[in-house]
Specification:
Layout (H helix, E strand, L loop, with lengths): L4 E5 L1 H4 L4 E4 L4 E5 L4 H23 L6 H15 L1 H11 L2 H12 L5 H4 L7
Parallel strand pairs: 1-3
Antiparallel strand pairs: 2-3
Length: 121
Amino acid sequence: MKKIKIKYVKKKEIFPAFGLAYFETKIIYIRDDLPKIAKKFVLAHELYHIKDYENLKSKNKEYKVVLGELKANFFPFLKDPIGGIFTLFLSLNPSRIKFYIDMYITKKTKFEDLGKNIKEK
């Protein structure tokens, strides 16, 4: 089993996302400009994605993106409601709202495009 790597990156590398989880490579990217409380919650959120994906894959079940997002917010929120609320408030700005609309409603933004500016060190 491959170990999960966590990398902190500049805002411009993954904006407007706060974090990204890549299932196959098991690499998580988190924006380094976020407040510590938000970084902690985003990390829990992205770790949940990877574990959820692995669990579903082991049962030959399909990963569903919207359900995955709901679970990756809900379960970490139960453990860290203050971090969840803080991160939610950070998300209530025009660029993040547009991001959610483009990602989940109009499908203008594709997950594959989000990490294209990441500079590997």
